[in-house]
Fold this protein.
Amino acid sequence: PVAGLRSLQILRDGAAAIYGSDAVAGVVNYQLKSDFEGNKITVKHGSSQGTTLNESTVNLLTGFNFNDNASHFTGSMTLY
């Protein structure tokens, strides 16, 4: 889910040198949020005027430390 992304990299050229010979078309590198603490809920709704088209999205992001701060959990979900 998008709520859990820290950044997104698209490597089009030269990716085969780093990621192997199968990466001829490029590489999409997802970097996730790994140090988020707390809860975050995002709700979005949209509609198109003059039509019956509606779209709703709910994002949930949660993160916490445990095991005397030796471990961390980050979870993310999206409902369309």
Observations:
- Residues 23 and 29 are 12 Å apart (CA to CA).
- Residues 2-79 form one domain.
